[in-house]
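Predict structure. Chain length: 256.
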Amino acid sequence: MSRPVVGVIGNTYVVENRFPAQLVGERNLRALAEVAGALPMMFAASPDITDMTALLDVVDGVLLTGARANVHPGRFGSEPDARHEPYDDGRDAVALTLCQACVDRGVPIFGICRGFQEMNVAFGGSLHPEIREIPGRMNHRMPRLPTGEIHPDPEVVFADRHDVALTPGGTFATLFGTDRIRVNSLHGQGILEPGQRVVVEGVAEDGTAEAIHIAGAPGFALGVQWHAEYDPQRNPINRALFTAFGEAVRAHQRRR
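Prediction complete.
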Protein backbone atom coordinates (compact mmCIF):
# COMPACT_ATOMS: atom_id res chain seq x y z
CA MET A 1 0.00 0.00 0.00
CA SER A 2 1.27 3.49 -0.84
CA ARG A 3 1.89 6.03 1.89
CA PRO A 4 -1.18 7.92 3.10
CA VAL A 5 -1.31 11.57 2.06
CA VAL A 6 -1.59 14.26 4.73
CA GLY A 7 -2.55 17.77 3.72
CA VAL A 8 -0.46 20.39 5.52
CA ILE A 9 -1.92 23.89 5.64
CA GLY A 10 0.23 26.71 4.29
CA ASN A 11 0.77 30.17 5.73
CA THR A 12 0.71 33.49 3.90
CA TYR A 13 4.10 35.20 3.66
CA VAL A 14 5.63 37.92 1.56
CA VAL A 15 9.17 37.06 0.44
CA GLU A 16 11.63 39.95 0.15
CA ASN A 17 8.72 42.32 0.80
CA ARG A 18 7.55 41.70 -2.77
CA PHE A 19 6.56 38.13 -3.55
CA PRO A 20 3.44 36.55 -2.02
CA ALA A 21 4.07 32.96 -0.99
CA GLN A 22 2.59 30.03 0.88
CA LEU A 23 5.07 28.43 3.28
CA VAL A 24 5.22 25.44 5.62
CA GLY A 25 7.91 24.78 8.22
CA GLU A 26 10.06 21.81 7.27
CA ARG A 27 9.86 20.24 10.72
CA ASN A 28 6.14 19.64 10.14
CA LEU A 29 6.88 17.87 6.88
CA ARG A 30 9.65 15.75 8.41
CA ALA A 31 7.50 14.77 11.38
CA LEU A 32 4.84 13.44 9.02
CA ALA A 33 7.29 11.68 6.71
CA GLU A 34 9.69 10.29 9.31
CA VAL A 35 7.40 9.53 12.27
CA ALA A 36 3.81 9.33 11.00
CA GLY A 37 4.93 7.48 7.86
CA ALA A 38 2.85 9.74 5.61
CA LEU A 39 3.43 11.72 2.44
CA PRO A 40 3.03 15.42 3.34
CA MET A 41 1.30 17.62 0.77
CA MET A 42 1.05 21.36 1.35
CA PHE A 43 -2.16 23.09 0.37
CA ALA A 44 -2.76 26.84 0.16
CA ALA A 45 -4.36 28.67 3.07
CA SER A 46 -6.35 30.73 0.61
CA PRO A 47 -10.04 30.04 0.00
CA ASP A 48 -9.91 31.18 -3.62
CA ILE A 49 -7.21 28.59 -4.38
CA THR A 50 -8.08 25.61 -2.20
CA ASP A 51 -11.27 23.70 -2.98
CA MET A 52 -11.83 22.02 0.38
CA THR A 53 -14.24 19.40 -0.92
CA ALA A 54 -11.71 18.34 -3.54
CA LEU A 55 -8.94 18.43 -0.94
CA LEU A 56 -10.76 16.08 1.39
CA ASP A 57 -11.40 13.70 -1.49
CA VAL A 58 -7.62 13.42 -1.95
CA VAL A 59 -6.03 13.45 1.51
CA ASP A 60 -6.14 10.88 4.30
CA GLY A 61 -5.61 13.45 7.05
CA VAL A 62 -4.97 17.14 7.71
CA LEU A 63 -2.28 18.82 9.81
CA LEU A 64 -2.96 22.37 11.01
CA THR A 65 0.46 23.74 11.90
CA GLY A 66 1.64 26.56 14.10
CA ALA A 67 2.18 29.98 12.54
CA ARG A 68 3.32 33.49 13.38
CA ALA A 69 -0.05 35.09 12.57
CA ASN A 70 -2.78 35.14 15.20
CA VAL A 71 -6.35 34.03 14.56
CA HIS A 72 -8.29 37.21 13.81
CA PRO A 73 -10.36 38.26 16.86
CA GLY A 74 -13.36 38.92 14.62
CA ARG A 75 -13.64 35.15 14.23
CA PHE A 76 -14.68 34.84 17.87
CA GLY A 77 -16.52 38.10 18.47
CA SER A 78 -13.68 40.28 19.71
CA GLU A 79 -12.00 43.45 18.43
CA PRO A 80 -8.65 43.43 16.59
CA ASP A 81 -5.67 45.27 18.07
CA ALA A 82 -2.55 46.35 16.19
CA ARG A 83 -0.44 44.95 19.03
CA HIS A 84 -1.57 41.43 18.16
CA GLU A 85 -0.88 41.52 14.44
CA PRO A 86 -0.12 39.99 12.02
CA TYR A 87 -3.30 38.20 11.05
CA ASP A 88 -3.86 35.75 8.20
CA ASP A 89 -7.47 36.03 7.04
CA GLY A 90 -7.01 33.49 4.29
CA ARG A 91 -5.77 30.85 6.68
CA ASP A 92 -8.61 31.61 9.09
CA ALA A 93 -11.16 31.12 6.33
CA VAL A 94 -9.69 27.81 5.21
CA ALA A 95 -8.76 26.33 8.59
CA LEU A 96 -11.96 27.06 10.46
CA THR A 97 -14.11 25.56 7.71
CA LEU A 98 -11.75 22.63 7.36
CA CYS A 99 -11.90 21.76 11.06
CA GLN A 100 -15.62 21.20 10.91
CA ALA A 101 -15.48 19.44 7.54
CA CYS A 102 -12.82 16.98 8.71
CA VAL A 103 -14.79 16.10 11.84
CA ASP A 104 -18.03 15.73 9.87
CA ARG A 105 -16.39 13.41 7.34
CA GLY A 106 -14.22 11.48 9.79
CA VAL A 107 -10.98 12.71 8.22
CA PRO A 108 -8.20 12.65 10.85
CA ILE A 109 -7.16 16.15 11.87
CA PHE A 110 -4.27 17.20 14.12
CA GLY A 111 -3.87 20.80 15.30
CA ILE A 112 -0.61 22.21 16.63
CA CYS A 113 -0.34 25.64 18.34
CA ARG A 114 -2.28 27.90 15.95
CA GLY A 115 -4.00 24.78 14.67
CA PHE A 116 -5.05 23.94 18.23
CA GLN A 117 -6.49 27.44 18.58
CA GLU A 118 -8.25 27.16 15.20
CA MET A 119 -9.95 23.95 16.31
CA ASN A 120 -11.31 25.72 19.37
CA VAL A 121 -12.59 28.73 17.40
CA ALA A 122 -14.11 26.49 14.71
CA PHE A 123 -16.41 24.98 17.32
CA GLY A 124 -17.47 28.28 18.86
CA GLY A 125 -14.69 28.88 21.38
CA SER A 126 -12.72 32.06 22.03
CA LEU A 127 -9.07 33.02 22.48
CA HIS A 128 -7.15 35.49 24.59
CA PRO A 129 -4.65 37.48 22.46
CA GLU A 130 -1.93 37.35 25.13
CA ILE A 131 -2.45 34.56 27.62
CA ARG A 132 0.41 35.92 29.76
CA GLU A 133 -1.65 39.06 30.49
CA ILE A 134 -4.25 37.08 32.45
CA PRO A 135 -3.46 37.34 36.19
CA GLY A 136 -1.65 34.28 37.46
CA ARG A 137 -0.54 33.06 34.03
CA MET A 138 3.08 32.52 32.99
CA ASN A 139 4.77 33.88 29.88
CA HIS A 140 4.15 31.19 27.28
CA ARG A 141 6.11 32.95 24.54
CA MET A 142 9.50 31.76 23.29
CA PRO A 143 12.61 32.76 25.26
CA ARG A 144 14.32 36.02 24.33
CA LEU A 145 17.68 37.61 25.01
CA PRO A 146 17.93 40.66 27.31
CA THR A 147 18.04 42.76 24.13
CA GLY A 148 14.55 41.53 23.21
CA GLU A 149 15.71 39.36 20.31
CA ILE A 150 14.55 35.76 20.03
CA HIS A 151 17.14 33.42 21.51
CA PRO A 152 19.36 32.17 18.66
CA ASP A 153 19.64 28.57 19.90
CA PRO A 154 16.68 26.38 18.82
CA GLU A 155 17.49 23.96 21.64
CA VAL A 156 16.78 26.77 24.10
CA VAL A 157 13.73 28.09 22.24
CA PHE A 158 12.08 24.66 21.97
CA ALA A 159 13.19 23.29 25.33
CA ASP A 160 10.54 21.81 27.61
CA ARG A 161 9.34 24.62 29.87
CA HIS A 162 6.33 23.53 31.89
CA ASP A 163 4.27 20.54 32.94
CA VAL A 164 0.85 19.60 31.61
CA ALA A 165 -1.61 17.68 33.79
CA LEU A 166 -3.73 15.27 31.75
CA THR A 167 -7.22 13.97 32.47
CA PRO A 168 -6.74 10.51 34.04
CA GLY A 169 -8.02 7.83 31.70
CA GLY A 170 -8.52 10.35 28.89
CA THR A 171 -7.37 10.15 25.29
CA PHE A 172 -4.00 11.79 25.92
CA ALA A 173 -3.22 10.04 29.21
CA THR A 174 -3.97 6.72 27.55
CA LEU A 175 -1.84 7.62 24.53
CA PHE A 176 1.15 8.67 26.64
CA GLY A 177 0.74 6.17 29.46
CA THR A 178 0.97 8.94 32.09
CA ASP A 179 -1.13 11.71 33.62
CA ARG A 180 1.64 14.33 33.51
CA ILE A 181 3.99 15.40 30.75
CA ARG A 182 6.45 18.24 30.11
CA VAL A 183 6.31 20.34 26.94
CA ASN A 184 7.75 23.36 25.15
CA SER A 185 5.93 26.71 25.00
CA LEU A 186 5.97 29.22 22.12
CA HIS A 187 2.63 31.00 21.89
CA GLY A 188 0.86 34.24 22.70
CA GLN A 189 -2.79 33.41 22.05
CA GLY A 190 -4.47 30.73 24.09
CA ILE A 191 -7.91 29.30 24.75
CA LEU A 192 -10.15 31.61 26.77
CA GLU A 193 -13.47 29.76 26.50
CA PRO A 194 -13.59 26.23 25.05
CA GLY A 195 -15.89 25.60 22.10
CA GLN A 196 -19.09 23.58 22.47
CA ARG A 197 -17.53 20.27 21.43
CA VAL A 198 -14.02 21.05 22.65
CA VAL A 199 -12.94 18.88 25.57
CA VAL A 200 -9.87 20.14 27.42
CA GLU A 201 -7.79 17.16 28.54
CA GLY A 202 -4.48 18.86 29.31
CA VAL A 203 -3.81 21.93 31.46
CA ALA A 204 -0.54 23.72 32.19
CA GLU A 205 0.57 24.58 35.72
CA ASP A 206 -1.03 28.04 35.40
CA GLY A 207 -4.38 26.79 34.11
CA THR A 208 -3.74 27.31 30.38
CA ALA A 209 -5.40 24.72 28.14
CA GLU A 210 -2.78 22.59 26.37
CA ALA A 211 -4.51 19.50 24.92
CA ILE A 212 -8.00 19.06 23.46
CA HIS A 213 -10.14 16.61 21.57
CA ILE A 214 -13.40 17.17 19.71
CA ALA A 215 -16.27 15.33 21.38
CA GLY A 216 -18.17 12.95 19.14
CA ALA A 217 -15.65 13.09 16.30
CA PRO A 218 -15.75 9.80 14.37
CA GLY A 219 -12.02 10.01 13.66
CA PHE A 220 -8.78 11.37 15.13
CA ALA A 221 -9.43 15.02 16.13
CA LEU A 222 -6.76 16.14 18.58
CA GLY A 223 -5.01 19.43 19.21
CA VAL A 224 -2.02 20.46 21.33
CA GLN A 225 -0.84 23.95 22.23
CA TRP A 226 2.86 23.03 22.24
CA HIS A 227 5.04 22.50 19.17
CA ALA A 228 4.97 18.73 18.85
CA GLU A 229 6.55 18.89 15.38
CA TYR A 230 9.89 20.08 16.78
CA ASP A 231 11.38 16.77 17.91
CA PRO A 232 9.08 13.74 17.52
CA GLN A 233 12.05 11.76 16.20
CA ARG A 234 13.55 11.77 19.73
CA ASN A 235 10.86 13.07 22.11
CA PRO A 236 8.62 10.18 23.26
CA ILE A 237 5.58 12.40 23.91
CA ASN A 238 5.65 14.04 20.50
CA ARG A 239 6.54 10.77 18.82
CA ALA A 240 3.45 9.15 20.36
CA LEU A 241 1.27 11.93 18.90
CA PHE A 242 2.61 11.64 15.36
CA THR A 243 2.63 7.84 15.52
CA ALA A 244 -1.03 7.81 16.56
CA PHE A 245 -1.87 10.33 13.85
CA GLY A 246 -0.06 8.13 11.32
CA GLU A 247 -2.09 5.10 12.41
CA ALA A 248 -5.29 7.12 12.06
CA VAL A 249 -4.51 8.34 8.55
CA ARG A 250 -3.56 4.81 7.43
CA ALA A 251 -6.86 3.52 8.77
CA HIS A 252 -8.67 6.27 6.87
CA GLN A 253 -6.70 5.40 3.73
CA ARG A 254 -7.88 1.79 4.00
CA ARG A 255 -11.49 2.86 4.42
CA ARG A 256 -11.25 5.08 1.34
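Summary: The radius of gyration is 17 Å.
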